[in-house]
Amino acid sequence: MILDKIIYDKVTVFNLVMILAVFVAAIIISRMIAFYIRRTLKEKVKQDTLEIVIKIITYSFVSAAIFYALTVLGINLSGLMVAGGVAGVILGFASQGIIGNLISGIFLIIERPIKIGDQVNIDNHTGYVEDIRIISTTIRTYDGLYVRIPNQNIFTSSIINYVNHIVRRFEYIVGIRYSDDADKAIKIIKAVIDDHPFALKNPKPQAFVDNFGDNSVNILVRVWSPISEWYSVKMELLLEIKKALEAEGIEIAFPQRVVWFGDRDNEVNKEAGC
Amino acid sequence: MFGTHDIPLSFETENIQLNIQKQNGCFVYQRKCNDEEEEKTLLAKKTTILINPVEPINKPKEITQYLLIDIDTSVIVEPRSTFKIYLTFPVAIGVFIKRVRDYDILDIFTRASQKYTLYGDQQRGVICRYWESLAYSTPPEVDPFQLGILELSIKNTTERWVPVSKAVFNAYGMKIYYSSERVSMKASMEILSESTAETEFFSSPLKKDMKKSLELYNVRKLSVLSSTFTMADGI
Questions:
Q1: Does the first or last residue of chain B, that is N or C, have fewer Cβ atoms within 10 Å of its Cβ?
Q2: Are A128 and A149 within one domain?
Q3: Do A172 and A157 reside in the same domain of the chain?
């Protein structure tokens, strides 16, 4: 029979078919488990933790299939390790970058300065972390671009993680006219902040006269918000502050210049014939 | 308004209008509370609606599982003693719709003001729903559609007088009871040191005739690991 045909040494066609079947089974089973885990734990476990668990399961199944294949093919693993010592040096030089990325990837998974779903700035790429793979990390920028960054670059560059802390502060400068009542404006601004559910009570928001500008009295407004709501609060509050100030007759100042003519009175007198 | 009802139904109280009426062959759910409106079409022939108070952490959006009650005038507790005080808490009203054996949430609304705060520091702290309350020695008279009464048993296990100005609770452990006149919960606070305490809800009504609420975490089948909260960043 064709299945009993020896290909080399003691390895038959049947052995190869079995190896193929084990690989296919390992991939299918790991994907089924991943699908089941995603479905059942999606709302209970954080996405990044879920992805790490799924990766560990997938790699474990694939490793088991590789181990099975090596055993069936009669490859002695201890011999492979001795040979690996020599080959390792050669491969090491040849694949420095890949190994560096791989080790950086492992450290990134252990240290976890970034997690899947985080909003980050790495190497001047700002966006959401889509995936942390063993060799590279992918980012989806705010304008929808796909950016792949090798893990070694991430590990050696500074990372800004915008969502690592649970709260974040934003600030506005509200410039009012010199003729407006600054105390009243501050009271109105504080009331608007107090009315917004996600403008946090603590850390306390601040509103104070920061400086006297060329055209306006500048009130500095600082507000803390939960990190998940930060951007929407920032967008909503400024418009609400503007509306509330205008409703009370306080206007946002705009650049203006008053020009004085020193000899204006003489000109007027000449024209009048005095 | 609280309790189970068959549709169609209609309720109106101060600042709350709730209707489920047949329109063009379908039931239409309409709710107005303060300035917020909600409308949904129910594709059902007949069903039962349950309206009861739920954990007040879902409006305007669920971002936390903690409730912080800021006590207006802080209370100072005698060493090695237990005292009861009464606080108010915001009431959120849940509208549930009957399924085969259980209920699904249809709508949540509240008349109470909404505000959030941070308890602890920015790295390890938690976001909490914020509520200010006076401390009462007897249950206060409040509008059950807006405010609930929390009976808080404070146990000072230390050797010193300890001031208490706030209490943080894990809302996933809330046990809410209701009647037509009041909404209530019972909780305990065990003071472990001058700045640390542990809080927990327990299942007991304020009055005998009160019914147990169907809480949201029950409906969502959330596996609650712990219903206690350790206040390690000041009390």
A1: N
A2: yes
A3: no
CA distance B146 to chain A (A): 17
* Predicted-assembly ipTM surpassing the 0.95 threshold: no
Kindly state the DSSP code that residue B173 receives in the 8-state scheme.
G
CA distance B163 to B146: 28
pLDDT in tens, A106-142: 777 777 888 888 999 998 899 999 988 878 899 999 9
**Which amino acid is located at B12 in the chain?**
E
Q: What is the biggest distance separating any 2 CA atoms in chain A, rounded to whole angstroms?
A: 130
Give the residue from chain B lying closest to A43, CA to CA: B222
**B63 with A224: Cβ contact below 8 A:** no
- CB contacts, 8 Å: B222 with chain A: 44
Report how many domains make up chain B: 1
In this predicted structure, the answer to whether residue A57 has a pLDDT above a threshold of 90 is: no
Print the domain residue range for B130: 3-231
Nearest CA in chain B to A200: B117
Domain count, chain A: 3
Residues constituting chain B: 235
Span A76-116, pLDDT tens digits: 766 666 666 666 666 666 667 777 777 877 777 777 888 88
**pTM of the model as a whole:** 0.77
Measured from the Cβ of residue B170, the count of other Cβ atoms closer than 10 Å reads 22
Helix spans in B100-229 (H): 216-219
Owning domain of residue A219:
167-247
- Tokens for A211, please give them: 């400086």
Asked whether residue A130 is domain-assigned, the answer is yes
Quick one: A59 and A14 in the same domain? yes
